[in-house]
Amino acid sequence: MDYAAQLNLQLNQLEEREQAETTAEVSLPVPELGPDFRFVFLARRVNLSQMIVAGSLPERMALPLLEAARSGSAQVDPEQIWLGLSAEDQLRVLEFQRRTAAAVCAAPKLVESWEPREGEVSIFRLPPAIIKALYQHAMGLSPSIPVRLADGSEASIEQIESFREAS
Q1: Distance of CA 146 to the CA centre of its chain
Q2: What is the DSSP letter of 25?
Q3: 3-state DSSP helix/strand/coil % of the chain, to nearest 5
Q4: pLDDT one-digit tens code per residue, 64-83
């Protein structure tokens, strides 16, 4: 058995399923670029756990975030964590933010290339304020995007949270 081919087939199927996931048009305010500036894009929910496990985020940054998520606490001071990182880890965090911004944006397709193909936009051309807004949207679990349920139907985050509270 060709295990590599089998794994690649499975990974391709997972990617196809993720690409077919629910999306929603989002209009993000970016006040740093002007009082009325809004970045309109087609958003998808990002699998942040997968990105963290893949090592995209330095452990010194990931550990406090994971601990806060586990405890249900929002008591994380990102600035304190940032100041404790080495310059190399700070660069890795910026890369993680770019990748997260690109992942949450289904359209326009953001790519890490100075020479994007037709239909793509270089993430390097985006003002840092847009990358920050996209990153924050993803880290907030993309609340505007419905969740696809096991039966194929969709529910809003609010519906799921109210169901949890009623249980």
Answers
A1: 15
A2: E
A3: 55, 15, 30
A4: 767 766 776 656 677 777 88
